[in-house]
Amino acid sequence: MSSHLAQQHSVPAITSAVQLLSARRLIVKIGSALIADAETGEVRGPWLEMVIEDVVRFFARGQQVIIVTSGAVALGSCRFNYSDRSLRIQEKQTAAAIGQVQLMLSYEKSLKRHGFGLGQVLLTRSDIDDQHRRLNARSTLQQILEVGAVPVVNENDTTATAETCFGDNDRLAAQVAQMVNAEVLILLSNVDGLFTEDPHDNPLARLVTEVRCITPAIEAMAGHSASRHSSGGMVTKLMAARIAMDAGCKMVIANGNKPYPLTAIENGGPSTWFLPRAKDRATRD
Ligand SMILES: Nc1ncnc2c1ncn2[C@@H]1O[C@H](COP(=O)(O)OP(=O)(O)O)[C@@H](O)[C@H]1O
Ligand SMILES: N[C@@H](CCC(=O)OP(=O)(O)O)C(=O)O
C-alpha cells in the first residue's frame, strides 16, 4: 500500500487532469445527499445544472459519461410523513417509485437544455450477476450513448427485495464501470474523499489523497453513513474501489458540494484517487 496522508493537501492538478482527460468513458455517481434537498424533498436544481454542464463538457471533447444517480428514496419519502425512523422495505419501494419520476424529470430537463436526451436504466442485482442479462444491460447502455443520449442509471428499488437488492449505488456504479470497461469511476459525495477517520466525528482526520492497495489499515478508516437516506458510507465506497480496481478502473472520491464538482476534481481539488496496478485491468464479459 502506498497511501499519501496529506494535511488537506489537494491532489496535484496534473494527476487529476491527466486521469480524467485520458478516460474515454467515465461513470459519475451522485449520492442522495447531493441531489436531494433534505429539507424540502426537492431536487437541488441549480446544483444539478452545474454537474450536467460539467458532463456536457466531457462529451464535447469526445468522452462518454454514464451517470449513476441516487436520490429516488430520499425524494419520494418526503411525500410521506414518515417519522425519523428508517424506512421498511415496502416503504422504500413506494418512496423510490414516486421519487424516481421526479429524479428523471429533473435530469431530463437539464440535459435537454444542452441538446442531450436521457436514457433511464434501472438495474437489479441479477442484471449484473446473470451473464446474459449483463450483456444485455451493457448493450443497452452503449446503444443509448450511440443515439446521443446520456444513460442515467439507478437500482430498480421498486422491485428490489431485501434478498435481491444491491443496497447501495457505490457498488452498483463500480459494477457498471466494470461492465462497460470505463477507465474512471467518480464518486461524488458530501466529503472530500477518504479520511483517516470520519471527518464528521474527528475534525483532525486527514485526507488520504492516493491509495494503490486497499489494506486492512485503509479499511479500518472507513465508517458508515450518517445521512438518513444514504446507504453507502465510506464502507461501500471502499467495496466499490475494490470492484473498480480489480477491473483496472481508476476511482476517485470527491466532494460534490462544490460549484462544477467535476471541473474542481480536474483542477486538482481535494480528492482520493484509487489507482490500480496496470496489470489489473481485466474486463468481465
Ligand atoms: N473514513 C471516512 N472518511 C470520509 N467519510 C467517512 C469516513 N467514514 C465514514 N464516513 C462517512 O461517509 C459519508 C459519505 O457517505 P454517504 O453518507 O453514504 O454519502 P453518499 O450519499 O455520497 O454515498 C461521510 O459523510 C462520512 O460521514
Ligand atoms: N437506489 C437508491 C440508492 C441509495 C444509495 O445508494 O444512496 P447513497 O448512499 O446516497 O448513494 C436511491 O435512489 O435512493
Automatic annotation (TrEMBL):
EC top class, as a word: transferase
Q: Does the keyword Nucleotide-binding apply?
A: yes
Q: Which domain of life does the protein's organism represent?
A: Bacteria
Binding positions for substrate?
S70, D157, N169
Query: What GO terms fall under cellular component here?
Result: cytosol
Matching SUPFAM superfamilies: Carbamate kinase-like
Q: For this entry, list what GO says about its biological process.
A: L-proline biosynthetic process
- The EC number(s) given in the record are 2.7.2.11
Q: Where in the cell is it found?
A: Cytoplasm
For this UniProt record, the keywords arranged alphabetically read as follows: Amino-acid biosynthesis, ATP-binding, Cytoplasm, Kinase, Nucleotide-binding, Proline biosynthesis, Transferase
- What pathway, per the record? Amino-acid biosynthesis; L-proline biosynthesis; L-glutamate 5-semialdehyde from L-glutamate: step 1/2
Q: Name one GO molecular function term.
A: ATP binding
Its UniProt entry gives the catalysed reaction(s) as: L-glutamate + ATP = L-glutamyl 5-phosphate + ADP
Can you tell me which residues bind ATP? K29, S231, G232, G233, M234, V235, T236, K237
Any matching Pfam family: AA_kinase
Every Aspartate/glutamate/uridylate kinase domain range: 25-255
Q: Which HAMAP family match?
A: ProB
User: What role does this protein play?
Assistant: Catalyzes the transfer of a phosphate group to glutamate to form L-glutamate 5-phosphate.
Q: Which family does it belong to?
A: Belongs to the glutamate 5-kinase family.
Query: What protein name applies here?
Result: Glutamate 5-kinase
Gene name, per UniProt, is: proB
